[in-house]
Design a protein that fits this description.
eight-stranded antiparallel β-sheet, Lipocalin, about 90 residues, mainly beta
């Protein structure tokens, strides 16, 4: 994440894997469990099933040039921006 209108910490990593799963890494490389994602009408949907509640989706919107993804918070209506940058690969961390 390179920008967050909610002033959250930038520097987290979002990984979309070829097996159809998404992994979110904190800035310290702590990984959240892999979640399924799918693409519909060009939007990327990540679905998290909350026990005893139900599914919650996060939607990423790609820019026209596919240079970045935008996530809009349903709570605040503010945007976070994700783009490819040169950072260390959390998968190589112990």
């Amino acid at each position: 994440m390179t920008h967050d209108e909610d002033q959250g910490p930038t520097g987290s990593l979002a990984e979309f894997r070829s097996d159809g799963t998404y992994v979110y890494y904190e800035r310290n490389c702590a990984a959240h469990p892999a979640l399924p994602f799918h693409v519909h009408n060009g939007e990327i949907y990540v679905t998290n099933f909350i026990p005893k509640k139900g599914p919650v989706s996060v939607v990423f919107h790609p820019s026209a040039d596919h240079g970045h993804l935008t996530y809009t918070s349903p709570r605040t209506f503010n945007n976070a921006r994700f783009e490819r940058v040169a950072i260390s690969d959390c998968r190589e961390q112990p």
